[in-house]
């Protein structure tokens, strides 16, 4: 059965359609959605089968995944990551925004993702669609970027082309308009040195 292609507007997205996506996620759906950087794919972090599906689609072993979590804000971050006071201040200043903060994972994360990972990436994108989804879901979703096989363009930007590629692998593709083709800046915040692992869209200034 082909995925549903769902149009949502980035500003003030239709909450009834957001509820539809949330209901699907609770039932184990894999969803593709826009962010403030590139299009992402993800699922409810509490659904192990859905996490395995995302890993399969990406062609990686679930135990070796490099998924990040999309959160609505920083209010529940202590459930998933250990954050120093300094890191919290920096994140509060820069988020929502195009950054992924790599933090020491709490014991919850290996249980959720069936992995031995000691770190977790935390994202609070400056985009209403994914934030409203996790706000109504009441817990984060895992996220991984939609890459393109094109030698020039690293990330897929056209939601219709994304739909054509993934329509038989996922359950919902959200059309939130053209996406960007520069991923988030990844910052190692496991200590207060704040080293940049990948320079992306966000400009990190302490």
UniProtKB/TrEMBL annotation:
GO molecular function: double-stranded RNA binding
Cited InterPro entries: DHBP_synth_RibB-like_a/b_dom, Sua5-like_dom, SUA5_domain
Coiled-coil residue windows: none
PROSITE patterns assigned: YRDC
Protein known as: Threonylcarbamoyl-AMP synthase
Residue stretches making up the YrdC-like domain: 15-202
């Amino acid at each position: 059965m082909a995925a549903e292609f769902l149009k949502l507007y980035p500003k003030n997205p239709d909450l009834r359609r957001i509820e539809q996506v949330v209901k699907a996620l609770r039932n184990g759906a894999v969803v593709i959605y826009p962010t403030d950087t590139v299009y992402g794919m993800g699922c409810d972090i509490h659904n192990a089968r859905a996490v395995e599906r995302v890993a399969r689609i990406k062609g990686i072993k679930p135990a070796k995944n490099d998924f990040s979590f999309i959160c609505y804000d920083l209010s529940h971050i202590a459930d998933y990551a250990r954050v120093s006071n300094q890191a919290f201040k920096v994140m509060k200043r820069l988020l929502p925004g195009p950054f992924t903060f790599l933090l020491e994972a709490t014991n919850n994360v290996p249980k959720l993702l069936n992995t031995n990972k000691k770190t977790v990436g935390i994202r609070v994108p400056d985009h209403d669609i994914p934030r409203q989804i996790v706000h109504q879901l009441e817990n984060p979703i895992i996220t991984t970027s939609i890459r393109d096989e094109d030698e020039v363009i690293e990330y897929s930007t056209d939601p219709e082309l994304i739909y054509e590629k993934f329509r038989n692998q996922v359950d919902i593709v959200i059309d939130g308009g053209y996406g960007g083709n520069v991923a988030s800046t990844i910052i190692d915040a496991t200590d207060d040195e704040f080293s940049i692992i990948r320079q992306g869209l966000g400009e990190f200034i302490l």
